[in-house]
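Example record

Each entry pairs one chain with its bound ligand, calcium ion.
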Amino acid sequence: MANDVAAIVLAAGKGTRFRSDLAKVLHRAAGRSLIGHVLEAVRPLQLAQVIVVVGHQADEVRAEVEASGIPGLTTVVQSEQRGTGHAVQQAVPALAHGIDRVMVLAGDTPMITTSWLERLMADANDVGGALLTAQLTDPSGYGRVLRDRDGHVEGIVEHKDASPAQLMVREINAGMYLVDRGRLVGALAQLDDDNEQGEIYLTDVVRILTSEDLPFAGTEAPAEVIAGVNDRIQLAEAAAILRRGHLLHLMAETGVGVLDPATTYVDVDVEVGRDTVLLPGTILERGTRVGERSTIGPNSHLTNVEVGDDAVVHSTRGVDAVIGDAAEVGPFAHLRAGTRLGAATKVGAYVETKNTTLGERSKIPHLSYVGDAEVGTGVNIACGVITVNFDGTTKSQTTIEDDAFIGCDTMLVAPVTIGARAYTAAGSTITDDVPADALGIARSHQTTKEGWVARRQERDRRG
Ligand code: UD1
Ligand code: CA
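Structure tokens for the complex follow.
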């Protein structure tokens, strides 16, 4: 808890290098927006204030950051994006009484962690301020950190303004600072846009303060923590690093088995339980939760799906669905929104479900479409069953009560109810309710013509 610290997070830029209609900070990596990652690193610090500077697509960015629900979060608008220093100038009037220190962060550095921000705060004690840096093998595009002969930070020079000698510097500015409030405000007042890009650079604050004889701490962090995302190539790289970090956490801390981390894509907000195994080609997205001892994959893509314990989900696509304990799904199942599979259920090959509840131990083993249905417990839906739920205008409901048996190739023309323990005969088109314990049979009778083949061959021979 840092009562006297406010964070200013810069998120007004367009992100020209993304070549996108979407504001850069709204692009997602490992299931979370870039700005969302930064805010999640800030959250545990419990700062008194978090001020996000919005501008490009201000409404959308504001909605995204407000959805984080971080206490003390407000937004200010920078209507013209005149540079990072200008952005901070817009936020300063919003600083509350009692704020003595200001942390400035960029909205496009999604790998930053809480512990490195804590380090930044600690290192700023007793000096003019602190900034995070990193040594990069390829520092192009970043501001370079200039140090004097004793190793003290003297200033930052942007790539575009750097001399050939300065371009050789591999220590880069992470764009994350902690500065005393009064000193920051004083230095901001001295900024100008006399540089290659004609922008008001926040980085000049460091030169101004160090020239006032206030040492600035430059804390070196790993490149993977401070890297910025300016284009789609860096976005893909950042996403890979974030996903790998989450997978390592799941393996090391939770005890999740991952056969091949390189082909397993798990969003950072996905939870997976102990002794569950993720097989190659598995993609788990948007708040998916998997219990213990389950097997997911190969090739399962689950988005906002809740999976219980001891379940098997093989080669399956699922969205907004629930898969109960010990359920068996796939291969090649498609669970659409509103699917709720009870414990020990089975949904097998080439089955599609939508808006359907399947009670405990019920089975749809093969080649069926079940939509808008309420299915009880212990029901067997044999091969090739279709709920005829849409007449071109309205969707209608199918109800199948406990222990019913739906024969192969039954069309259930909804709205229709099959009572408990009732059967439908194979090949039936069921348009009327079948009461409990009854058999519903709705198909034409077969006619068998004895000796028909010989008669036909005779006819063919005569021509
Ligand atoms: C900035 C730093 C650079 C550092 C790099 C680290 C400056 C001048 N340069 O460069 O030294 O190495 O970050 O990643 O600060 N933004 C606004 N309003 C603006 C301009 C930018 O809110 O008017 C926001 C952007 O949305 C972005 C952040 O500030 O989230 C950084 O801006 P960006 O243009 O990406 O700066 P870099 O060129 O990467
Ligand atoms: Ca950047």
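The chain has two domains: 2-226, 232-440.
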